Amino acid sequence: MHFGPHSSHRRVDLSSAEGPEFFRMHDVIRITALSRATLYRRIAEGKFPAPVHLGGRACGWPRAALQRWVDDPEGYLDAHGPADLNTRA
Known about the structure:
By secondary structure, the chain is of the alpha+beta class. The protein has helices at 25-32, 36-45, 63-71, and strands spanning 22-23, 52-55, 58-62.
């Protein structure tokens, strides 16, 4: 399923030098307008970048990976393939 650009669609540019190197879940939900469940489903399908572990229980999405998805959300495929979210490191 492909949807055309929404009339109020704005280009999101995360590549500026200012801002965090990693985005936490609440930021990703705000940026993408996707729910938490949809994010995890797309990660499992390889259609959204997987978060990286930052230490302890913290994880986040690298700015560059998130920008690749923002640039082409329908065409994004994770280079590592579908994620296995059931494994523990």
